[in-house]
Amino acid sequence: MNPESRPPPRVRVTASTAGRVTRAPTRGFALPGRVADEADAVFSRGLVRAQLRLAIGCVTAFVVMAAALTGVIAALPALGDPVLWSVPMSWLLHAYGFYPLILVFALIYARAAARNERRYRQLTEPGDAA
Q: Where are the transmembrane segments (predicted)?
């Protein structure tokens, strides 16, 4: 192999720290254009707790509903009698019956989480003090 056909040597590219702006770490969330203060920290902790409560509640309710659906399928042996495309109906319910349940709980969670965030924004907006 002659020297002219060699690939160029590898070069390591790294980011420069010359133009970086470092910010003081803040606890919680602050709205753009505002400095985070103690009230923002309290409100943001409340938002995080509310979102966690919502998530735990939705997961718990989903598990209960999924267990109930499984129990109903297991308790009704007659669901194994109807056959669709040579597959027992109970198998199809196990395979595809949970997707509508997942969709319903996802929509409930998304709407409730957005409502929690709207309430947080209403509490922290600077123009509503009067």
A: 54-79, 91-112
Instruction: Give the residue ranges of DSSP H helices in the chain.
Output: 38-75, 89-96, 98-124
**Cβ(50)–Cβ(117) under 8 Å?**
no
Find where tokens 């995080």 sit.
Answer: 48
Do residues 41 and 29 lie in contact, with contact meaning Cβ atoms separated by under 8 Å? no
| Contact yes or no for 121/31 (Cβ under 8 A) | yes
- The residues near 55 (Cβ < 8 Å, ≥ 6 apart) are 109
CA 126 to each of CA 24, 119, 129: distance values in angstroms, whole numbers, following the listed order: 22, 14, 6
Give residue-wise pLDDT tens across range 8-29: 888 887 777 666 655 555 545 5
For residue 99, CA distances in Å to 66, 79, 81, 92, 107 come to 10, 19, 23, 12, 12
DSSP secondary structure string, 75-107? Answer: H-GGGGS-EETTEEHHHHHHHHTHHHHHHHHHH
